[in-house]
Each structure stands twice: as C-alpha cells, then as structure tokens.
Fold Methionyl-tRNA formyltransferase.
Amino acid sequence: MRVATLGYQTWGHRTLQSLLGSKHEVVLAVTHPKSDHAYERMWADSVADLAAEHAVPVHIANKPDEAFKAALAEADPDIIVANNWRTWLPKDVFDRPRYGTLNIHDSLLPKYTGFSPLIWALINGETEVGLTAHLMDEELDAGAIVLQRSTPVGPKDTVTDLFHRTVDMIGPIAVDALDLIESGRTDWTPQDRSQATFFHKRAPEDSRIDWTWPAEVIERLVRAQSDPYPNAFTTFKGQRLRVLESSVSQGCYGGTPGRVFIHEGDGMVIVAGPDAWSGRNRGLSIERIRLDDGTEMTGKEFFPHGGGYLGT
C-alpha cells in the first residue's frame, strides 16, 4: 500500500523506520517543527531527517492547514499511519485515504486516551501497559481496534523502562496492522467507551509531590518521572529537591504529611497519606535526591536528622 505517515519524536521516527523496511511504499512523511518544551526535547529522533535520508517527501506543520492538505492530496496515499501526532485532525484528512487513518497510541485503549499515558498508567499502579493500533474517527483515540500488544509492569519499573519496551513494539504492531488491513479484514473491535479515561498533558506542577497522597502512590510518581523526564520534586526550606529514588517505609508513622521524620537505612522517611494523623500509614523513604546544581546525595546525607517539613 501507499502510506503517508503523521508522526513526531521517537514514536513517529520508529513508525516511519518500520514502514521503510516493510513491503509498503512510504509516499509522504508529515511531522511537527522542533519544540523547546521539556517533554518534546526528550526522545526527539527526527522524522524529517529520517525521511530525507530515504528520499521521502517531507511536510512540516503544526496543524492540518491548506498546505498540509495539499501535500496529502498530491501524495495520494492508500492509508495514513499516525503516531504521536499532537493536533486534532478533521474528517476530511483522516478519512481521505481509501483505508482511512491508522493511529498507534501508547496505551491499552480505551484506558489512557490523551497525553502521557505511560506516566499516568505507572502512577495509577497498572499491571500492564502497551500499544493500540486503531482506526481514527472523530473522537480522540476512540476508533475501532485493529491490534493491541501489551507488556507487564514490574514493581521497580520506571517510565523510562516502559518507554523502551513499548517503543520497541511500535514497528511490529504498525506493520502487522497494515498487513491485516490490506488483507481485506474489517472485523475490528469497537471500543467500550464507558471504560475510557482521558488524561491531560504533563506540566511542571504535575511533578510536584503532594504529601497527602499515600506513600505507595508517591513512590510510583517518582518512578514515573525517572531521568530523562522532569523528576518528581518537593521543597525544603526554599530549596527544590528532585527525588530520584524512593521506597515505601518499613514502619508506619503518624503525624502531619510532609514531616521529615526518621532514618531507615540510607533514606529519610517522610510522613505521608490523607490520614497521616492515624499513625497507620507507611511513609515515603527518600533514598536519593538531586539539587538544582546537579549535586546528588542520599536521603540520609541530605537529612542528617529529622525535623521540618517538605513542600512548604
């Protein structure tokens, strides 16, 4: 089939790379311009550069304007394959090709539609994550499912681990889904939209630790903001602390959320939880932090003794 790709960053790059190595003909690659946004500077393999290396026509656009539509019309693809395209597509774009538009989304739809699905899934304690190849319709991430692939989430996995595992799944699911579509199958699985969850883009404030959250959730937040993502952070006496490693405390501790309390091993336990006053909650042991100047220390080194509060 003649394929046009819509993609950005490493997700779009891997999609294009897989299609260039397949039996299908890539006739156009559309991508966004480079951005200085923190999340868009990560995993920033260039779709435009890869397309140019393989003599594939490139169109750069933020949204589907008239020039975008003209480039698509000239390419005349049988199908569009989208992955990490960041702006809304109208029906006259996604429905224009003979087979429509196949979108690759990095969640197990209908859960985690929208943005940063791996981060939100890890925060929420999901036991598996994955990819969904679905046909695009007028509702975001809601079209019929062609293929899904999953991978388990381990108790120590970071979002960086999950990124690498799922990004390696992009090529196989994209090519396999195209082959199924080309075969003439149309018995795709409709999504149960009553099970859908929709998440917003991440912003710096989303990485700030809320000490009224249970320690188990804060520990997952830390793993969901592993390098090179903007780390989970808190403040102490006006200084920002980026939390690199943490664990749920062995003991139960009571008091006020955010209280710097007691050492466990090389960590300093912080009182946490919505009912910390009860004394029945585990705390969060901060095991490694990074200061804004890049200095890294264990929790015990930074907090030689208990006292004071985080997040104030």
In short: The mean pLDDT is 96. The longest helix spans residues 170-182.
